[in-house]
């Protein structure tokens, strides 16, 4: 029987020396799919060969059997990665990027996380995170109304941003473009956000790493940047003003500028 493989596609770099371009892999967040990155794709393709992947059970990807946790996601995504690549992960995709970088240190050359907290929920020693009861309430409501929970979560993604109304509209369009994700994938994703703690993974990370946060993010408070820097002083921090949990949708030009500054500083793209 043929194994179920996540949907993925690789796009050729548009630069004159396209054959020499390095590989960049994009990993999306909970409940959506790779089309979320469409606004920044032209800018990325000017420098990279870009691979997009829909996480299992989301977008166009099938959902194989197995416990939907980080080990499962890594096992599904790792075979799709180029031999040497850079990872960019948003939210849940950022947790996956950190985990893959830890497991595949020779393969993963750099990591960018966007609106990702190494521990998404609060703890006694981790205050700058989502309160446990809020995520628990999302899970409780999810069990009764999957689609409604998705819509509310998308609205929370955009809450407070200067471009909130436009952002919500765009996210809803993206959500319905491929149909609703599989219920088991959504439930597993919520469980990962509730339970994953990658603080030690981040502290030990050796690859060049950028963690980008939104000033007005209601899911991952920008204040966590201080705690992240304490965990690993080598991590580059960027806080984008006026945006919430989807900075690459709210202000794609500013987002790409911060991203390319990081890649130039680390010799990934030409200065």
Instruction: State the order of secondary-structure elements, H for helix, E for strand.
Output: EEHEHEHEHHHHHEHEHH
Number of helices: 11
The number of distinct β-strands equals: 7
Kindly give the count of domains.
1
Query: Kindly, what is the distance between the CA atoms of the first and last residues, rounded to a whole number of angstroms?
Result: 48 Å
Unreliable segments of 5+ consecutive residues: none
Strand order, main sheet: write it out: 1-3-2-4-5-6-7
CATH class descriptor name: Alpha Beta
The CATH topology name reads Rossmann fold
Tertiary shape: globular
CATH homologous superfamily - what is it? Alpha/Beta hydrolase fold, catalytic domain
The share of residues in extended strands comes to 5-15%
Percentage of helical residues?
25-40%
Tell me the quaternary state: single chain
Rg, please?
17 Å
Major sheet attributes: 7 strands, mixed
What does this structure look like?
This protein is of the alpha/beta class. It has a single domain (8-265), classed as Alpha/Beta hydrolase fold, catalytic domain (Rossmann fold), CATH 3.40.50. Helices cover 40% and strands 15% of the residues. It contains eleven helices and seven strands. The chain has a seven-stranded mixed beta sheet, with helices on both faces. Strand 4, helix 3 (92-103) and strand 5 form a beta-alpha-beta unit. The model has no long low-confidence stretch (mean pLDDT 96).
